Amino acid sequence: xxxxxxxxxxxxxxxxxxxxxxxxxxxxxxxxxxxxxxxxxxxxxxxxxxxxxxxxxxxxxxxxxxxxxxxxxxxxxxxxxxxxxxxxxxxxxxxxxxxxxxxxxxxxxxxxxxxxxxxxxxxxxxxxxxxxxxxxxxxxxxxxxxxxxxxxxxxxxxxxxxxxxxxxxxxxxxxxxxxxxxxxxxxxxxxxxxxxxxxxxxxxxxxxxxxxxxxxxxxxxxxxxxxxxxxxxxxxxxxxxxxxxxxxxxxxxxxxxxxxxxxxxxxxxxxxxxxxxxxxxxxxxxxxxxxxxxxxxxxxxxxxxxxxxxxxxxxxxxxxxxxxxxxxxxxxxxx
Length: 335
Ligand SMILES: [Zn+2]
Known about the structure:
By secondary structure, the chain is an alpha/beta fold.
C-alpha cells in the first residue's frame, strides 16, 4: 500500500511525449488515462478506415485528465500517473484491441507507445502497492447528461436483484478484485460508492450512474467499459478499473470542466484515502469517513484531528462530504 509518510516532499518527474503519447509519471497508486482526447492528425499516419474510424474525439478529455492529475497532486504532494493519446482516433484508436485500433505500422507505433506507458505505470503501481486504481476518462453525447461509470456490467446486469448483482460484480466486474478485498462490504454498495462520491461532491447537481440514486443508467447506449477497462482489470489481480464517461455539457464549457475536474478529483481522493493509501500524513490531517446511510444518502463524517494550514473544516452538512481538501468545501464546490 502507498505510504503517504514516505513522501513529504513534492513528487515531480517531468512529463514527456513520444509518438504523440503524453505521459506524466507518478508515484500514487492511481493511473488516469485519456485515450480519445487527441486531435492531432499527422500526415505520416494514414487514416483508419475500419470500425469506428469516423468517430469524433472525446473533446477536452485530455484537459480533464490533466486537471484531475493536478488537483490530486496538489492534495497529496504526490502524483498520479497520467497518460493521454494526443493522436486523433482517426489515426489510432488506443481504446480498441491492436488489430482494430491500428491499421498501419505508424498507427501501431502510437498504439504500442500508449499501452507501454499504461502498462509501465500499472506495473510500477502494483510493485509498490498491492492494489491500484485506473480511471479511464471519456466523453459521451447521450441524452441523459449523466456521468456514466463503466464497470463492464451491462444495463440488464445492473437491473438484477441485489443478491444476483453482488455475484455478478464478484465474477466479472472491473472492480471484482476490489469487491473481494473488501468482502465485509456488500459488493453493490462498493459499486455505487464512486458514483455516490461524485454526486455528493457536486451537491447532487450532477447525475451519476450507477450510483445509489441512479443504479441503472437511463440511456440505452450506456457505455459499459471499453478495451482499457477490459484489458487492464484482467491482467493483474490488484488493479481496479473504472471508465468515466463525461457528458458533453460538462466538457465543452471551461467553468463546467473546472467543476467536473473538482468533483471527480474529490471522489478519487476519497477512494484513495479510504481504500488505497496507508494513512500516515493523510490520515492525521484528514480523517474523513464516508458512509452510506439508509435511504441511500451519503454522509461523511469529518474528524479533522490535525488540520494545520490545510484540511477540511466542514463537518455539519449531511448531504455533503469532505475529503480533506486544502480549501474550504464551500469554496471548492462554488468556484
Ligand atoms: Zn471515448
